[in-house]
Structures are given as structure tokens and as C-alpha cells.
Design goal:
Elements: E1 5-12, H1 28-32, H2 40-56, E2 61-64, H3 72-77, H4 84-94, H5 96-103, E3 114-117, E4 127-131, H6 138-141, H7 144-154, E5 161-163, E6 181-184, E7 193-198, H8 216-226, E8 231-235, H9 238-242, E9 252-255, E10 258-262, H10 269-280, E11 287-291, H11 298-304, E12 310-312, E13 320-325, H12 326-330, H13 332-343, E14 348-354, H14 357-360, E15 370-376, H15 377-381, H16 391-404, H17 417-433, H18 442-445
Parallel strand pairs: 1-2, 4-5, 7-8, 10-11, 13-14
Antiparallel strand pairs: 1-15, 3-4, 6-7, 9-10, 12-13
This protein binds N~2~-(3-carboxypropanoyl)-L-arginine.
Length: 446
């Protein structure tokens, strides 16, 4: 017996320290824009508008709170002491790379928050979450404990939800979460095919210029601990990683029966398709929409983020809608591919565009900002209602962002102790707005 289910989104609310610090080698946008001034206020409003857009389309939308940044606890663990302001000041003087990592607003990219297995695919009938350890990049490795706290707050019922700890934080088990997971199915509530894409193997030396962020062993462990069915493990292509595909979701997105991807996404495209077909067996016929490099060179795919779009089934519509960043419309080749898709009789009936430019400049498109969670009616009812996006919450959070966020932040401003106080004041108020209770943030626990 399967229960009808819908695909909800939980987006990372962009934090007050959103900045361009060049922290992610292999993520070309992050390197290219390093040192530029950011606009955290515009960023949070863009993210909120995107959430409202999805909620208005009839898809359940949740908000994941930003993490406390600067991460003073992390800096203290490195031996910096004194008042919180003194810790920050000293760290920026003596260890600026660690200080920059401690200030990153990277938890905004919720596709990296966790890997999710819907209850229809899990052996014990619960929805499983494993926060990603994100060990490849220092600034991101600081996220998983607070991510678990946020997921516990949003999915509090242990009868229905299993929120695990991250995999051990070692390079052998490097895990980047749902950015390397695609689920295909006949219908969200029915058992699906779980495509887990890895870049390197734990025991083999990695020689690429850029890091491969997901190990095969991490993906296997996730599937094992979630009791996931329909698992297909495939290798991300080395050419894709070399070209700047730091996550599979930069060149691939899927929904229901449709897999939309660039021809350089996988090391073995024919093998990947065959494995997906075999896993789908007689349950459904996968639809492959493959974009050849001749139509769209990898470099254009990466700079325009055509594939880092949200592929969604709007309630009541037969065909899928692709929600792309405005950068896709600005790139003539990507735009042509998107328009052809919508004009064809294929599975994607409509293309829309959303402005998330502040996030895009750090390599985070519409799909990076959201974590997809397939939920049955009963599971939806068991989520924390205070974290669900509504018109009223959108208005409250927009006013909150306007009040607390700066409209200009250069990387040098991250050292300003006033920013620490401003960020904490913002997060303190937010815990009330999202019903998170006291002690949600480390600074509230003393
Ligand atoms: O991990 N950028 C993020 C972008 C994550 C995008 N997520 C997905 N593709 N799902 C990253 O590389 C840049 C931060 C900086 O340079 O300041 C950063 O962390």
C-alpha cells in the first residue's frame, strides 16, 4: 500500500554574513567573485521571494534557519581566547583563512544539508535524513551539527522521521548530501529509483585538479543506513569535475520519470541509463532528456546553471516546470535549450526564471538553495508548522531581513565585531519567528 505524497522544499534562509570569500576550489563562481562586495539584504530577500514563489505554486515550502556565524566556538577550538569580539579580532589577524571559514553563510545551500530517503523507499517506513559532513571544504565542514538541530526542529516526530548524525568526518566518507542524489519514480508516494552519484573512491588516490567531493563509500553508507531501496550508484565524470562541476546537481536534475542532464555528467552515460532502467524495472519507464555538448558546451552549462534548476510538478499540471536562474535566460545557448524544451512535446512543459543572483555568484543556483523532501499527508502534518512558508511568514521574514541585514559587505567587513553583534541580534529574533525555542543557537546556550 502506498500513500499519496508530494515533494516539499526546505530552503536555507540566507544568513547576515553572506559574502564572497573564494572558499571553494573547483567552484568557479566562488573563485571568480572572490573579494567582491556582497549584498546580504538583497540575498535574503531573493531567497525569500523564491520560497514564496514555490509556495504560491502549491508546493509545501519550509524554511531552514541560518547558522550562527561567525562561528566563535570553532575559533575557540583553535585556541583563540578572550571575549567573543577578541576571539574574532585575533583570529582575523593570526589565522585569516580559518576566520573566513568561520564567517561563511554557506549553510544557505540546503541541497547540501542532508541526503533524504522518503518513507516509500525506506525499509522501516520512516523518512530518513543524514546531514552531510561536507568535509571537503573547511567552511562547510562546520555545518552538520547545527543542520541536524534544524532538521530535528522541522521533523520532530521520531515515529515518522529518522534524523541521523552525519557520517564520520573523514575524507574516506566525504559526503555532500542531496546535491549528489536524484530520485526518479512513477509517483512521489511510490517506491522510486535513487541515483547516488559519486566522484572518487575512498581507497584510490584522487589526481584531479579540483576535488571530487563525494566518495562512493559515503554514498553506499547512506543507502545502507537509510535502508534505501532502488539504489543505483554511478560515477560522476572526471571531465565534469575538471570543468567545474563540483556537485552533480550542476549538470543534472530529475523529477518523477524524467532525468534531465548534460552529456558530460556521468563517466558512463549508457551504463547509467541502463542501470536506471533496470532499477525502474516494470514500475515505470524513465525518460532521459540529454543535452549534448554540441548544443551546450559544459562551460556554458556551468556558468548559466541550466541544470541547477528546480524541476517540479505543479499540482494539477501534467507536464513538469523547470525553474531556472535568470543567468540561464542571459546565456543565449542555455536559453535556446530551455526554450526548445518548453516548445517540444517532451516532459518539460514550461520554463520559468527566478532571480537568485546573490547566491549564484557563489555557485549556488535555485536547486542548491533547496532540500527536497517527499512527504505523505500524515508526514506533512507532523512537521513543525512555525517553519512552513506562508504569506504572513514571508512578510515577517522580509521585514526582519530589511531590519537586520547590511546591504553591502566586503570580505574585510567580516572582521568587524559589530557584525557579530548584529548577526546574533538577528538570529535571536529569528528563533522566535520560527518557533525554534531557546538555546537553538550556541550563543543562546552560553
Ligand atoms: O559548496 N559555495 C558552495 C555552493 C554550493 C552549491 N550547492 C549545490 N550545488 N548544491 C560550495 O561550493 C562558496 C563560499 C565562498 O566562496 O565564500 C561556497 O561555499
Amino acid at each position: 500500500m502506498t500513500s499519496p505524497a508530494i515533494e516539499a522544499n526546505a530552503d536555507g534562509l540566507i544568513g547576515p554574513t553572506h559574502s564572497y570569500a573564494g572558499l571553494s576550489p573547483g567552484n568557479l563562481a566562488s573563485s571568480l567573485n572572490a573579494g567582491d562586495a556582497s549584498n546580504p539584504r538583497a540575498a535574503v530577500l531573493q531567497g525569500l521571494d523564491k520560497m514564496k514563489r514555490l509556495a504560491d505554486l502549491g508546493l509545501p515550502q519550509f524554511v531552514l534557519p541560518p547558522h550562527e556565524r561567525p562561528d566563535i566556538r570553532f575559533l575557540r577550538s583553535l585556541g583563540f581566547a578572550g571575549s567573543d569580539g577578541a576571539v574574532l579580532e585575533r583570529a582575523w589577524k593570526d589565522a585569516p583563512s580559518f576566520a573566513a571559514a568561520a564567517c561563511s553563510a554557506s549553510p544557505m545551500w540546503a541541497a547540501n544539508a542532508a541526503t533524504v530517503t522518503p518513507s516509500a523507499d525506506a525499509a522501516d517506513g520512516r523518512v530518513h535524513f543524514t546531514p552531510a559532513n561536507l568535509v571537503t571544504n573547511l567552511h562547510r565542514s562546520l555545518e552538520h551539527a547545527q543542520t541536524k538541530r534544524a532538521l530535528d526542529a522541522l521533523f520532530p516526530d521520531p515515529e515518522r522521521f529518522a534524523v541521523h548524525d552525519a557520517l564520520p568526518s573523514v575524507s574516506h566518507l566525504a559526503d555532500e548530501g542531496a546535491a549528489n542524489h536524484v530520485r526518479l519514480c512513477a509517483d512521489h508516494g511510490e517506491p522510486g529509483v535513487n541515483l547516488l552519484v559519486w566522484g572518487r573512491e575512498a581507497w584510490k588516490h584522487w589526481q584531479g585538479q579540483y576535488p571530487a567531493r563525494q566518495t562512493r563509500e559515503a554514498s553506499e553508507s547512506l543507502a545502507r543506513r537509510h535502508g534505501a531501496s532502488g539504489v543505483v550508484l554511478v560515477r560522476q565524470s572526471k571531465a565534469a569535475i575538471a570543468g567545474g562541476t563540483f556537485h552533480n546537481d550542476v549538470v543534472c536534475v530529475g523529477a518523477l520519470q524524467t532525468l534531465f542532464f548534460h552529456d558530460l555528467a556521468f563517466e558512463d552515460t549508457a551504463g547509467t541509463k541502463a542501470a536506471i532502467r533496470a532499477a525502474a524495472a516494470d514500475r515505470f519507464e524513465p525518460i532521459f532528456v540529454e543535452v549534448p555538448s554540441t548544443d551546450l558546451p559544459l562551460a556554458d552549462a556551468i556558468s548559466s546553471y541550466l541544470f541547477n534548476s528546480m524541476l517540479v510538478q505543479i499540482p494539477g499540471e501534467d507536464r513538469l516546470t523547470l525553474i531556472c536562474p535568470t543567468e540561464t535566460r542571459d546565456n543565449p545557448r542555455s536559453h535556446a535549450v530551455a526554450e526548445q524544451l518548453a516548445a517540444s512535446n517532451g516532459p518539460i512543459g514550461r520554463v520559468e526564471y527566478v532571480d537568485v543572483r546573490q547566491s549564484m555568484r557563489n555557485g549556488g543556483g535555485p536547486a542548491c538553495l533547496r532540500l527536497r523532501v517527499v512527504l505523505t499527508e500524515a508526514e506533512q502534518a507532523a512537521t513543525n508548522p512555525a517553519m512552513r512558508m506562508t504569506d504572513a511568514l514571508h512578510a515577517r521574514l522580509s521585514a526582519w531581513g530589511e531590519k537586520h541585514y547590511r546591504d553591502r559587505l566586503s570580505p574585510a567587513d567580516l572582521a568587524d565585531p559589530a557584525l557579530l553583534d548584529e548577526s546574533r541580534a538577528a538570529l535571536d529574533e529569528l528563533t522566535g519567528l520560527l518557533g525554534l525555542g531557546g538555546g537553538f543557537y550556541p550563543f543562546q546556550r552560553g
